[in-house]
């Protein structure tokens, strides 16, 4: 009898569990603010845990999966479906909220379609988890508040609980306005209500549509757009765009992620003090961390980049460099560690070929123009081989970035003036991308120096270089415009030096423009121009040269007025 009762009890529990409703959703959140944008896709299971009363249910929301992409500033990606494609996920504190959502099921109650969250309980649970992760005190409160806000909004988004559709009588009207929102009922029956809604005021525009079950208020499909617009100092208008799209779906299926993965990336992140205090790594904690996670995650990019960052902070660069050399380039793609690996020198050719396509545009430019070029200047054999590979064995991006320098290396190794002129003309014939991404201005000027040493100065050719560079500087959208401005200053100085002595006014005009294009502020002193000056042996500023010449000629006052006006 005893066993019969147990069996009946188990059957009863199973039957009750089978009656508990389960729903699956895909929720897409898109937002943009100025040049910063974010896309998130949540894969959600919503389950009824039990009935608390006739109309009151205990519910649980579980985030089964997440895809995210952020652009602007530091680009970020993450996917629970493929951890290998993640990049810079932990660079934002919002990642802590995402990981909490993936780890912690969220419980709340729903009474007649109205969501009720136990705020105190949620906030205590969030705070406890952040404490366990040793989240730093200076960001703890902000992360806690953002986590509560984002996850409570996520829960509420699954229910269409706005007042106008809760009263059965008023909802039969075609249009209803409440709290400034106008609702237009498109369809209504016992199983489904469909409507759209709008609201506009001086700072925002709201537009949306939804279809939902009138018994539970659960959304079947919905879309909500909000555009915020406001003025900032200077009269510039800034727009902030948010979109939320919800749809019922099948259950999300992906390989389960173990809890220690989340512990690994959070505890090793900038936001946690688990491995040290005040941005100083504790060596004992670090090596315990490595011992714990290396066996399982040695080929995981998040773990590898975290380990390398802390080894750097540890202070012994040799340990960092040794670890860096043993790591596959693919695991540190698009990170500064990859640039460090490349710049360490003596990279095997096969590994070099692996690394180059993994560099982003900025890294490729920096490596070629600031690192490799210094070795190429001395005609280092291995460096010349690296350059030849980049210029000739990859795609268009790499060819554009390396070809001007490659032509210059040929020029350095010839004694024939005609060959130098041909090489210079080949650089001058290059299209704009070579001047922007391949720094062709530097190499056109370097070849001009070689020609000048052989007595083959040509003011017209220098003017042609100037005419190629000037539009790049004048384009205010060009990120390298101040590099181009420095090239312009030196090109005018070269023209001044090359102008015949019987053309004093023309020479003075070139020197005046060399002073004019010299940097006028710290903002105009582009970092990369330092390397150009090293190669060209040029000056940062030609104003002093100009004023000295004016002083000699007794024309200080008149020409000072001219340059002041031009500046």
Would you spell out the secondary-structure blueprint of this structure?
Elements: H1 2-19, E1 22-33, E2 36-51, E3 56-71, E4 76-79, H2 94-103, E5 106-111, E6 114-116, H3 119-132, H4 137-157, E7 175-178, E8 181-188, E9 193-200, E10 204-212, E11 219-231, E12 237-248, H5 259-267, E13 276-277, E14 280-281, H6 283-297, H7 301-314, H8 317-325, H9 336-343, H10 349-355, H11 361-376, H12 381-392, H13 396-412, H14 417-428, H15 432-436, H16 440-453, H17 459-474, H18 481-498, H19 504-516, H20 529-536, H21 543-553, H22 556-566
Uncertain stretches: 11-18, 556-567
How many distinct beta strands? Answer: 14
Structural class: alpha+beta
Roughly what is the average pLDDT, rounded to an integer? Answer: 88
Overall 3D form: elongated
**Beta-strand percent range:** 15-25%
Task: Quote the distance from N terminus to C terminus.
Answer: 101 Å
Q: What is the subunit organization of this protein?
A: single chain
Number of helices: 22
Largest sheet: 12 strands, antiparallel
* Portion of residues within helices: 40-55%
The whole-angstrom Rg is 32 Å
Task: Describe the model.
With 567 residues, this protein is α+β, with helices and mostly antiparallel strands. Helix content is 49%, strand content 20%. The protein has helices spanning 2-19, 94-103, 119-132, 137-157, 259-267, 283-297, 301-314, 317-325, 336-343, 349-355, 361-376, 381-392, 396-412, 417-428, 432-436, 440-453, 459-474, 481-498, 504-516, 529-536, 543-553, 556-566; strands spanning 22-33, 36-51, 56-71, 76-79, 106-111, 114-116, 175-178, 181-188, 193-200, 204-212, 219-231, 237-248, 276-277, 280-281. The strands form two sheets. Strands 1, 2, 3, 4, 5, 6, 7, 8, 9, 10, 11 and 12 form a twelve-stranded antiparallel beta sheet that branches. The protein has a two-stranded antiparallel ribbon with strand order 13-14. Strand 3 (56-71) and strand 4 (76-79) form a beta hairpin. Helix 2 (94-103) packs across helix 4 (137-157), helix 7 (301-314) packs antiparallel against helix 8 (317-325) and helix 16 (440-453) packs antiparallel against helix 17. The longest helix has 21 residues, at 137-157.
